[in-house]
Request: fold
Amino acid sequence: MDLLNNSSSEWLDWRWQYRNRLRRPEHLAGLAGGNSNLVDEWRRVAQSYPFAITPYYASLMDPTDRDDPIRLQCLPDIRELADIHTGQDDPLEEDRHTPVPGLIRRYPDRCLALGTNRCAVYCRHCNRKRFWKQGSRRFSRAYFQGMIDHVAQNPALREVIVSGGDPLLLPEATLDWFLGSMKAIPHVEVLRVGSRIPAVMPMRINKKLVGVLKKYRPLWFNTQFNHPREITPEAARACDLLLTAGIPVSNQAVLLKGVNDDPETLRELFYSLQRNSVRPYYLFSCDPVKGVDHFRVDIRKGMEMMEQLWPRVSGLCLPRFVLDAPGERGKITLQSFSL
Ligand SMILES: *Cc1c(COP(=O)(O)O)cnc(C)c1O
Ligand code: SF4
Reply:
């Protein structure tokens, strides 16, 4: 496939992007630079952690650069297997905080509802890699209804965050019904959608989808751009469609070694988000999840970088640097004090 042939109308069709994802090691042969060991490594990694890359996201890579920040986020890497026998699948104890299938509740006032376990691109640094093993399942109506009933029975829950996997892979009709059912619960005041689609398959954000989402305002949209090169004209257009429909867009980046762990890259990421009216909300320290250890950056280094940015960068572009702690302790702000 010619990855750079991106002028066709098919290219802008998200279903085409989804169907034509690079999913097998042989699809990536062009990126191995003639190194057949690399193709073997990808095959081995994929047995534990599958991969899928939209042609759009693949086109953002420099195919000749093995350290390319886009490549690092989407191509299998043998280092993912380093802790296969020792790492923790669920260090945040999400599974222990799952009162009904799919619903994670670690805080009194808000909960996460997992709409699907599928993603357009499988981010190598994902902290829910444990779900990939389940294969791509379609969840039943009863599964969604179980989450709706749980929220209805718990009046303290005022905010529901629909996440995944990537919830925007659900058909519009399912999203419409699910968001509508949650919104109809009297104590649910606010909805949130968490999706990486604007970064990895922005053509999914079309008028029809936005038409569904905007019915359920106030609805916040949180996405994940990790590198300024992900903010392409297509991605900017996707964010603009949401924003002009009255849906605020915020960004939850993850601090990733080799991708964005230097102050210049972070500053450009935050500036670029702000130019597109996207609010930098969180910068996550990468969780100690099995298979992502090679992305983890020393917390002290992260704090130092953020401290360097404070006086130099507009407050509107500075996210909170946070560490997600197990269970109900939740997100802890990483910030030192100086008087
Ligand atoms: C991160 C998270 C939330 C949202 O937390 P905010 O700080 O409001 O963004 C909600 N539920 C779970 C389980 C989470 O992990
Ligand atoms: S889109 Fe989100 S859930 Fe899916 S692989 Fe990426 S980080 Fe994980």
In short: The chain has a mean pLDDT of 94. The chain has eleven helices and nine strands.
